[in-house]
Design goal:
Layout (H helix, E strand, L loop, with lengths): L1 H26 L9 E7 L3 E4 L5 E4 L3 E8 L6 E3 L6 E3 L4 E5 L6 E4 L4 E6 L2 E6 L4 E2 L20 E3 L7 E4 L2 E3 L8 E2 L5 E3 L1 E3 L5 H35 L1
Antiparallel strand pairs: 1-4, 2-3, 5-17, 6-16, 7-8, 7-11, 7-12, 9-10, 12-15, 13-14
Helix pairs in contact: 1-2
C-alpha cells in the first residue's frame, strides 16, 4: 500500500502547485501587461506487473508538474491619455535595465515615468529601471524626446523566456537572443491590460480543487487499507 500513498501524495502535490499558479494568475488580473501561466502535467514512471494468465499490466506512480508555461495572449488596450503610457501592438517586449546590477529584463508593461539621475532625466518604469532604445541605451527625456525612440524586442522562441519578477522576463538559451523590431507599432496614451481571463481561471480552479479532493480521498482509502492489513497480522 506504500505505492498508494506515494501515488496519492504526488497527485496532491501536483494539484497544489496547479492551484498556486491559478491563484497567482487571479491575483494579477489587474496587473498591466501580465501574461498568465499554465501548469503542464506528466505521468511518473510506469511499472509493468504480472496481471495473471500471461497478461502484463502497467501501473503508474502518480503525476508531477512537468513545467509551467507562459501564455502570451495579448491583453486589451486601455486608453489612459497619459503621455508616458505606452502599449505594444503585436509581438514584442520593452527592455528595461536594472539601475543597480545592469541586468536587462523584458516586459509588456508600458506604464513609464521620468527618473532624475544626477542632472539628467531618463525614461524609467515604475520600479525605477531604465527603459532602453533599440540599441539598448538609456533614453534621456528632453525636448527632442519621441516615443519612437523606445526599443521593442522580439525572440525566436518567447516561450523560452523565464520569469524575472516584477512582471518581467529574462532571456535564456532556449528563447534566443533579443532582436530589435524594425518600426514597432507602439500606441502612446494606452496600456495593455492583463491577459488573464477570470472565467477560464475559475474553471481551472474548480478542476484543480476537485483533483485535490480526489487525491485526498485516495490517500485516506490507502491509509484505511493499511490499518486493516496491520490488524490482520
Amino acid at each position: 500500500m506504500i505505492r498508494g500513498f506515494y501515488t496519492a501524495a504526488s497527485g496532491l502535490t501536483a494539484q497544489q502547485s496547479n492551484l498556486n499558479v491559478i491563484a497567482n494568475n487571479v491575483a494579477n488580473i489587474s496587473t498591466t501587461g501580465f501574461k498568465p501561466q499554465r501548469a503542464a502535467f506528466s505521468s511518473l514512471l510506469y511499472e509493468r506487473i504480472n496481471g495473471g494468465a500471461g497478461n502484463a499490466i502497467s501501473v503508474g506512480h502518480g503525476i508531477k508538474v512537468e513545467k509551467t508555461d507562459i501564455h502570451f495572449a495579448p491583453g486589451n488596450l486601455i486608453q489612459t491619455d497619459m503621455p508616458m503610457d505606452f502599449a505594444i501592438l503585436g509581438d514584442g517586449f520593452f527592455a528595461v535595465e536594472n539601475g543597480e546590477d545592469g541586468s536587462i529584463t523584458y516586459t509588456r508593461d508600458g506604464s513609464f515615468r521620468s527618473l532624475i539621475d544626477g542632472r539628467r532625466n531618463y525614461l524609467a518604469d515604475a520600479s525605477g529601471n531604465y527603459v532602453l532604445d533599440a540599441r539598448e541605451r538609456k533614453i534621456e527625456l528632453g525636448e527632442d524626446f519621441d516615443y519612437t525612440q523606445i526599443g521593442v524586442f522580439q525572440f525566436e522562441n518567447p516561450y523560452g523566456l523565464v520569469l524575472a519578477g516584477g512582471n518581467g522576463f529574462s532571456a535564456t538559451e532556449a528563447s534566443g537572443d533579443p532582436e530589435d523590431v524594425d518600426r514597432p507599432d507602439i500606441k502612446a496614451g494606452f496600456l495593455e491590460s492583463s491577459a488573464v481571463q477570470i472565467a477560464e481561471e475559475m474553471v481551472k480552479m474548480i478542476e484543480a480543487s476537485k483533483g485535490f479532493s480526489f487525491g485526498s480521498r485516495i490517500l485516506q482509502a490507502a491509509d484505511e487499507m493499511e490499518k486493516t492489513i496491520n490488524q490482520l497480522r
